[in-house]
Amino acid sequence: MIQLVRPVEAMKEQAIEFRQEFFEHGEFVINGSELFDKTDDYTEWCRSIDANTKEETVNPNWVITDTFFAVDDDRIVGIIDFRHTLNDFLKDLGHCGYSVRPSERRKGFATEMLRQLLEAAKKTGMNELYLSVERKNEPSVKTIIRNGGVYERSFEIDGEQADIYRIALLE
Question: Is this entry keyworded Protein biosynthesis (predicted)?
């Protein structure tokens, strides 16, 4: 059973290896990583994501966000973030992004990561979450639908067709 845990300095070596696996597979964007794919300084990244969890310290260009590694048997298998609000930039990206490392895909990790994140979102008092997904990313579409996602609308991003799904958090 996976656990969602906040990234900490002690996870640095594992985290770098996790990121490297994406790069070795030609994937240079790690969705839900709060720019972990764009930094070389893990310690600074940890400081940044910690600052973004609090209203007093959140980056003025961002929103309050919780970022978690998904850990299974002491191995980072994925990453997921939860954006508490949406600004103009995020309106088409949604409240959540996630990625599963290439060697761990098709094992149900993304579905479980999202399920656990939805439970955390409920505890904040949110009624619904919006998630975006490129239409051609069928595994992610299935993950969202398995977690109660209902199609809302379509849009285009970087020349790709994408859809927004809504997940109601109330029982």
Answer: no
Name the H helices within 25-137: 42-51, 109-123
Q: Which DSSP state fits 113?
A: H
What total number of domains does the chain contain?
A: 1
**Taking all residues of the chain, what is their mean pLDDT, rounded to a whole number?**
96
Q: Which domain holds residue 144?
A: 3-168
pLDDT score recorded for residue 26: 98
In whole angstroms, what is the distance from residue 109 CA to residue 28 CA?
A: 20
| Mean pLDDT within 53-80 | 96
Residue 110 belongs to domain with CATH number: 3.40.630.30
Query: What pLDDT is recorded for position 171?
Result: 61
Phi, psi of 136 (to 5 degrees): -75, -10
